[in-house]
Structures are given as structure tokens and as C-alpha cells.
Write a structure and sequence with these properties.
The protein is α/β, with parallel strands linked by helices. Helix content is 46%, strand content 16%. The protein contains eleven helices and ten strands.
């Protein structure tokens, strides 16, 4: 058993984050394994569709593993490592094959961004979404790019500033979710979509999907580099140190006002 299970069935590659006790949070190992899985699926001619899922019934993915975000004294290595999440997004968009997020529970923070980076999001009626980084003194820098694929800029900013959670029906209304289904019908609905996508001409899908994301993502590399740099800067701020400390201690953070603000 690994932190990401990879299997193929009926022409689809399933990548399942297997950390249910941690609400399938994305550790460094999970991110590395997701990248390996996406590259394996891209290279496999028998794979027509890729599905991202989370183990258990509680969460699709609750975001990044906050225990690994604290300063470990090696700033350059940590900064370089943060590019791996950006690599997941670019791998998803450059895959040449349709992608589906199977969301059965919580899809929060980086997990919400991971779902947004997929072509389709099939959500259980029990699913809960949110971008709550601001509540722990952070900002959702890296997932800004995929979220702006799915929702309007003003709505994305509102959700980032408030950190509030929203249900699957709201997520569909916002444009993040493709369809909402009864919890017991989730797997059947994903399988139906896999079969439907398998009917499409594979070369047309690969070329057309690649062209689509090339148009949508024009200038993306520059944006991701800027967002990665801002994430590293943000993690040096007192808010981030206090937020991560409060999260680890399971207490409410105590924010310190900055005289004159930032400039």
C-alpha cells in the first residue's frame, strides 16, 4: 500500500490518494506519487481517461499537509519543492486525455484546486468545498490558476477572502462542479462518464484538448512562477507562523496587526 494507489480498469487510470486518516492531505510524497501516476497514465496507450479520487468516505483531499509547510531551515529546497504542485496542474492540462475528479467528501484548499484542475468534477451531494487558507494565516497562491479556470475572478477572490465552505450544489452553480449526484450513485456516474468519453476519437481528443489548454493557459508559466514566489514569501510572514502553530495546537490563531500595513 502506498499513499497514492494507481490502477487501470476499463480504459481508465485511477489515482487514489490513500491517506484517509489525514483526510487525504497532500504530503510531499503524495504530490510526487501523483506526478508519477499522471506520467504513467499519459504514456499508456490503453488509458483513455484519468480519474483522481480520495480513499474512504470522508474526503477527496483536504489540501496540503500543513505539518510540512513550517520552516525547516532549508528555504531554497523548500521553495523548489513547491513547484511540484504546479507540475501536477501542468501535467493534468498537458495529459492529452480527459480527467475526472471523483469528489465524495471534503475538497478543501489544495484539494479544491486539484479538483478544479480536472476537466470534469463529479461530486456527491455530501461533498463540501472551500478555500480556507486565510484562516491559518496563508493564501492559496498555487491553486489560484486552476480556480480561475473554473470560476469568475471576483467569486474566486470572495471565496479566498472569506474562507467559507460551500456545498456541492453551490459548487455546481459556481461552475466548479460538472454534476452533483446522490452519494450512492457516485461511482456509477463516474463509470458512465468514462464510457461516454471512451467513444470519442482519441486523436481528435488529444489534439483538441491540448489546443484548448494552450489557448486557456497562455502565459501560465509566468503566472505559476510568480505564485510560487509569493507562496514562499507568504510563509515567512508572522501570520503564517502563527496560523500554522495554532493549527498544530488546535487553538484559535491570534493575529498581530502590522503598523502601517504592507507596502
Amino acid at each position: 500500500m502506498t499513499d497514492v494507489e494507481y490502477e487501470t480498469r476499463a480504459g481508465a487510470a485511477w489515482l487514489t490518494i490513500n491517506r484517509p486518516d489525514a483526510r487525504n492531505a497532500m504530503s510531499n510524497e503524495v504530490i510526487d506519487l501523483l506526478l508519477q501516476g499522471l506520467r504513467a497514465a499519459k504514456a499508456d496507450a490503453d488509458v483513455r481517461t484519468v480519474v483522481l479520487a480520495g480513499a474512504g468516505d470522508r474526503a477527496f483531499c483536504a489540501g496540503g499537509d500543513l505539518s510540512q509547510m513550517a520552516d525547516d531551515g532549508n528555504e531554497l529546497e523548500a521553495h523548489a519543492g513547491r513547484s511540484q504542485l504546479a507540475s501536477i496542474f501542468t501535467e493534468l492540462w498537458g495529459l492529452g486525455k480527459p480527467t475526472i475528479a471523483r469528489v465524495q467528501g471534503y475538497a478543501l484548499a489544495g484539494g479544491c484546486g486539484l479538483a478544479a484542475a480536472c476537466d470534469f468534477v463529479i461530486a456527491s451531494e455530501r461533498a463540501v468545498f472551500g478555500i480556507p487558507e486565510v484562516n491559518v494565516g496563508l493564501w492559496p497562491y498555487m491553486i489560484t490558476a486552476p480556480l480561475l479556470h473554473a470560476m469568475s475572478p471576483k467569486l474566486v477572490l470572495q471565496l479566498m477572502l472569506t474562507g467559507r465552505r460551500f456545498d456541492a450544489a453551490q459548487a455546481q452553480q459556481y461552475g466548479l462542479v460538472s454534476s452533483v449526484v446522490a452519494h450512492d450513485e457516485l461511482d456509477r456516474s463516474v463509470d458512465e462518464l468514462i464510457r461516454e468519453l471512451a467513444k470519442a476519437a482519441p486523436q481528435a481528443v488529444q489534439l483538441g484538448r491540448t489546443a484548448f489548454y494552450a489557448a486557456v493557459n497562455s502565459g501560465l508559466e509566468t503566472k505559476l512562477q510568480m505564485l510560487q514566489a509569493m507562496l514562499t514569501v507568504g510563509l515567512t510572514m508572522p501570520d503564517a507562523r502563527e496560523g500554522l502553530s495554532a493549527f498544530a495546537a488546535k487553538r484559535q490563531p491570534s493575529w498581530i496587526e502590522t503598523p502601517g500595513g504592507l507596502s
